Amino acid sequence: MAAPHVSGITALIRKQHPRWSPSAIQSAIITSADDRDLDGNYPVDEHFGGTADVVAVGAGQVNGSRALDPGLVYEIDVESTPPIFAAWATPTGN
Fold it and tell me: Domain Peptidase S8/S53: where (predicted)?
């Protein structure tokens, strides 16, 4: 169910910041995500028990209002990114 929320937030960011690159928009969404639920609790890893890590839950719950004005955003370009990380940022043409 995250895709429609992220798509909507992306559209709002594009409207407010039309010159931002896709990587800047991605950065805004990821860096502004909430890492706790609405009650202030960290997510629980139901398989292993305890608090779930970022691998299990991703960046967190998207926060549209914070994503519109995230403060610092990271620009990713293939030329300045180590090859192991640049592979996912390279367009595939699909």
Answer: 1-48
